[in-house]
Amino acid sequence: MKLRSIRVEQLRQFRQPVCIEDLADGINLFTGPNESGKSTLVRAIRAAFFERHKSASVEDLQPWGDSSAAPRVTLEFDWGGERWRLVKSFLRQKRCDLQVGGRAFSGEEAEERLAELLGFQFPGRGASRPEHWGIPGLLWIEQGTGHDLQQAVAFAGEHLKSALGRSLGEVASSAGDEVLARVERERAQLLTSTGRPTGEYQRAIVEHEEQGAALEQLDADLAAYREQVDRLGELLERMREDHRRPWEEFRRQAAEAATRLAEVRSAQAEQQRAREQLEEARAAQRVCRERLLAFDEQERELHDRGEKQRVAVQALADLRAAQPAIAARLERAQAAHGAARDALQVAHQQEQRAQLQDKVAQLANELEAAAERLGRAQTLQAGLRSLREELQSTDIDTRRLGRLKKDARALEDLALQERTVATRLRFELHPERHLVLGDETLTGHGERLLLEPVRLRVEGVGDLQIQPGGEDLTELLRQRERLQDAVAAALAALRVASVAQAEERVERARTLRHEIERRESLLGEIAPEGIDALQEALQLERSRLGGLHASLAELPAATAGAASVKEAQRAAERASEELDAARRAAADREREVGIAEHTLAHAGAECQRAEALVQAPDRRRQVDESQAKLVELLAAERALQETIATRQLAIDAARPAVLEQDQRRLNASADSLEHEAQAREREFHRLQSSLEAQGAHGIEERRAATQQALELAARRREQLARRAGALDLLLGLLRAKRQELTRRLQAPLQRHLNHYLQLLFAQASLDVDENLVPQTLVRRVDGADQHGDVLALSFGAREQTGLISRLAYADLLQEAGRPTLIILDDALVHTDRERLAQMKRILFDAAGRHQILLFSCHPEDWRDLGVAAREMRSL
Amino acid sequence: MPRLLHTADWQIGRQYPRFEPEDAAALAEARITTVETIAAIAREERVDAVLVAGDVFDAQTVSDRTIRRLFNALAAYPGPWFMIPGNHDAALAESVWTRAQRLGAVPANAQLLLQPGVYAFEALGFAVLAAPLTQRHTYGDLSDWFDRAETAPGLLRIGLAHGSVQGVLAEDIDSPNPIAADRVARARLAYLALGDWHGAKCIDERCWYSGTPEQDRFKDNGAGQVLLVDIPADGSAPRVEPRKSGQYAWHAWQFRLDVDTDLDRLAQELERLAPHSVLQLDIEGRLDLAGRQRLQEILAVAEARQRALLTDLSGLRLQPSESDIAALQADGYLGDVLAALRDRQADAADALAREALVILAGLLGERAAGEVR
Predict the structure, then answer these.
(1) Are A364 and A457 in contact (CB under 8 A)?
(2) Does B50 lie in the same domain as B70?
(3) Burial of A763 (0-12, 13-18, 19+ CB in 10 A)
């Protein structure tokens, strides 16, 4: 379909007719600012198609305030090889005329033809609304709705699907979705979405399981019941035996065993008594033997005591025999001891004498040395005295000398100063001529320093008063006088003629002092405490020497060959030790003799006592009696042993332990048999009543009823399971087949979509849902597929995908032989520059197949679209 | 010449879980009414005694009411009724019999032969050698002592036992409660009345199984009768004559559907079947949707006529024909689904696919009907 011309009259701001002709097959770009009539033009086209010419709801088409206007739109377009001309006027002049080739249609007939051609509907009444717009609603994008695809697709859905269907030559199932919904509902009554049983089916399963459990319980009850019945039969059998009272036989046997046991027991008692007698006889024997042993002991004791007494006598005699030798040793030791002490005293005196002689010799030497030292000290002292006297006369006050030297130097300095400051009088006189300067007569040539006013007399001329300049000179003169006075005074005081002489005397004094110091220290060494002390000490030594000579005279004269003190002392010690040893030996022997005497006395007494016992009067008789009794007791023991052995044989043969066990065992058997019988009887009665009670409940009848219920539940469960399975299978098949069909139907659309999409996003694809609305945008990001819901995209991206989708629908419709006209009113206003460039390529591509009317208030955005823009204001 | 009525295996208290509750109740009830029928036959035929050869009760713990109802059902015939316990109602220490006695439900005309022994009835001219089961199962022949049992001269010796005659009932070779095949001859019996086998069976001219008087399984072996036995006093062979006692006949049919006319045949055969039967009907083969509809109708008619109808259609394949699909207006992917389900049944019967097909056909059928309206 190609729009060729548009003419608008008396419509909103187009009060005057506006005609647009020469519309291109591809893109037609209309630009102009707001309010320039773009939207009015779009509205006019929409009204021409969508609004009933008779509609009263199109007052918005009137120019402002002009209710008498008859808005009119005239459209010319080519379709199906024919020229179509539509003239539609509203309100004042309600009219619709359509010429197709040579045929003319008017009124509603014309409108219906248009609706059928383009795929839209007219409203029942009132103004046309989006739900009526069908395919044009999808392809004609109004301002600001480019992003909202869902609704437009929904309103165009039927037309789109039929277009698709026709292109495929297939018809979608008319009943399919209804049946699918029914199956879904039916299945949902039995199965959850995850396939778990629910509702009636689940109840049937629960019922079946409950009945199964009940049956199991009843089976268990029945088994228990049968067991009880069997037990009852068994008890009945046993009770028949019990009636013969089998335990009584055991009781009788037990009694028999008891009788025999009593007999054995009495034999055992006798045996015990016999054993006791045997024991008594043996005890009496032991007493007899002990008595006899005691008698023997007494005799042996007497013998021992006699022996001991003899030993004691001998020991005493031996000790006494050795006593004189010990006394002699003591005497020897005492004599040796006295001699050793005397020798020691002599040795001491000899040693003292030698020592005194040594001291006398030493002292004499010392005296000699001391006298010599005293002589030297006295000489030194005399020398010292004369040196000190000389020093006294030569010594000069060094401080004064210092001042003198200072003054003398100052005087020299002053003289130098005077020479520089003084007025110089240089003269070269003619021979024989002279000058008198002050008192001096000057002749020849020379120079004089004038320091003070002086009168120069020139003979024949007069006097010249020369006044040396400056006060300094006067001051200097004064200073020189003062210093000269000071120097003269100092020399006088020091009693020297010159400074040099003074220094000479200082040097001499220093030499003297050194000499004095040297001699003083020498004297200090010889007589540290002075010469008087030295003399005193000498006197003392001499008196000590006198004393020592006196002591030496008192001591006996020296004897030759006397032992040394050390040897004498060792000899004395040895003698003392020997004396001690001899004394100890004497004392020990004394004590031993005493002990031996005591032992002898004791042994004698004991010997007497033992003899008394052995010699007692009836001892013999007692010994005889005891021996006779022992013989008697031995015979009694033998007799008893025989009796016991014989009786024991009899007792062992009767085996009392076994008899006792028999008795216990038999009694216990009888008791347990009787108890068991009683227990059986009790159990029998208990079981019988229990079974009677249970029998009345009819377990097996109930079991049969339960089984019947179980089978019924199983049948119902199976039926429902089969129905659920069948519904599940059916639903799965329906969905699979439906999906398969949908995919086949959508394939062409998908192809067109992806064609455009490649120009916008490389390697991207757009999935559409069964209503043909784009759902998911799949893009390659960093080598991985990224899925994004179209509705979640940015506004701009939605706008772009919206436009792409619409172009794809247009392609699809065109393939199905449907007319396509695309109108974009201010589209892509939210698209950035880069994307816009791509969208322009897309639009240019689409324009090769479809006519596109593009309205924009941004002419600069569309300059590179490849077509000239029409300025709205130029129309 | 004593005239006896021989019966056994009454199985009072038996339940039928495979059947719908209503049918099961009727079948259980029939067992007691059949005893009433037996009493009526006994009275009509003026028999000298009724011999009941074991398994009077189906279980030991039937309810008290059931016990009372059974003994009440004997009332029409004054007796005597000679009953021995079988394996289902063995005379255990505690049994249905001790309970019946405790309840005081046993009428004077019923004689319970609970202990093995010779019960002589001079007035009737015979002695009963009873071999009751006192355990649930025995592996020795309880009738063994018959050979050595003494009876008064002049009295006919009539055996009454419950078990499997050895070597005769092939499938019961290893079964418990054996009975020697030559017992009659060795014990010099005039007649041996046996129970346990539910069909009527003649072992030899003096030895019979009467079978159960009311059929209780799908086995056509002469069940549902009692035996009228006339024993000549001269010791010659007894005359045995079956009498029908059962209410419901049980049938098991296998039916194959391949062509459309098979359905007509089925309908005819069902019509021919006596009403109030118990029928097990296993159908296999293939059907289209229209045929299935017709089958449902035929079965509904039969169900109403008969006492109980058990059907098994698991071997049936459902294969919609082209005309079925056209009628269902299954266009678009519904057609694909139908085809897929049909394909799944092409090779074998697939219960789920068949059910799914039925559901889909039902939904489409409803829809088509709605559109027609």
Answers:
(1) no
(2) yes
(3) exposed
The answer to whether the Cα torsion of A120, A121, A122, A128 is positive or negative is: negative
Question: How many whole angstroms separate alpha carbon B11 and alpha carbon B59?
Answer: 8
Q: Going by C-beta distance under 8 Å and a sequence separation of 6 or more, which residues neighbour residue A356?
A: A548, A551, A552, A555
Picking from A173, A228, A711, the nearest residue to B332 by CB comes out as A173
Mutation choice for B interface testing from A230, A237, A686, A737 by most B CBs within 10 A: A737
Range of the domain at B200: 3-244
Is B207 in the same domain as B258?
A: no
Residues A31 and A126 in one domain: yes
CATH of the domain at B171: 3.60.21.10
| Cβ pair A809, A749 in contact under 8 A | yes
Helices and strands, counts by H and E, chain B? 9, 17
Is the domain of A51 the same as that of A129? yes
**CA-to-CA separations, A209 to A714, B99, B279, in angstroms, rounded:** 9, 33, 29
Residues B260, B240 share a domain: no
Q: Residue A265 sits in which domain range?
A: 249-320+616-665
- Domain containing A141 — which CATH number? 3.40.50.300
Match 């296999």 to its residue by tokens: B284
Q: Record the tokens describing residue A866, joined without a space.
A: 């490849």
CB within 8 Å of A775: residues ≥ 6 apart: A767, A768, A769, A789, A790
Contact check, Cβ <8 Å, A173/B18: no
Q: Is the ipTM of this complex over 0.90?
A: no
C-alpha pair distances (Å), A683 with each of A218, A245, B14: 24, 18, 32
Q: Using CA coordinates, name the residue in chain B closest to A705.
A: B15
Q: Based on the structure, what is the number of domains in chain A?
A: 3
User: DSSP 3-state assignment of A175?
Assistant: coil
How many angstroms separate the CA atoms of B25 and B13, rounded? 11
DSSP letter for A125, please. Answer: S
Distance between CA atoms of residues B171 and B164, nearest Å: 10
Cα-Cα-Cα-Cα torsion B56, B58, B60, B61, nearest 10 degrees, comes to -120
Number of domains in chain B: 2
Nearest to B337 among A725, A727, A733 (CB): A733
Closest Cα to residue A760, out of A707, A697, A838?
A838
Q: Is the dihedral of CA A784, A787, A792, A794 positive or negative?
A: positive
**How far away is chain A from the Cα of B359, in angstroms, using its nearest Cα?**
8
Task: State whether A173 and A256 are in the same domain.
Answer: no
Q: How many CA atoms lie within 13 A of B172 on its CB side?
A: 16
Q: Looking at beta carbons, which residues of chain A come within 8 Å of B24?
A: 708
What is the biggest distance separating any 2 CA atoms in chain B, rounded to whole angstroms?
94
One-letter-per-residue 3-state SS of A178-244? HHHHHHHHHHHHHECCCCCECHHHHHHHHHHHHHHHHHHHHHHHHHHHHHHHHHHHHHHHHHHHHCC
B127 & B231 share domain: yes
Give the length of chain A: 875
- Strands A784-789 vs A774-781: parallel, antiparallel or unpaired: antiparallel
pLDDT tens digits, chain B, 373 residues: what are they?
A: 889 999 999 999 888 888 888 888 899 899 999 999 999 999 999 999 999 999 999 988 888 888 999 999 999 999 799 999 999 999 988 889 998 998 899 999 899 999 999 999 888 889 999 999 988 888 888 999 999 988 888 889 999 999 988 877 665 555 678 888 889 999 999 999 999 988 888 988 999 999 999 998 888 788 899 999 999 877 788 999 999 999 998 998 999 988 878 888 999 999 888 888 999 999 988 888 888 888 989 999 998 888 999 888 888 887 777 777 777 777 777 888 888 888 887 776 678 888 888 888 888 878 777 765 4
**A874: which residues sit within 8 A by CB, 6+ positions away?**
none
Q: How far is CA A789 from the centre of its chain?
A: 48
DSSP state of A858: -
Residues 6+ apart with CB under 8 A from A382: none
Tell whether B267 and B230 lie within a shared domain: no
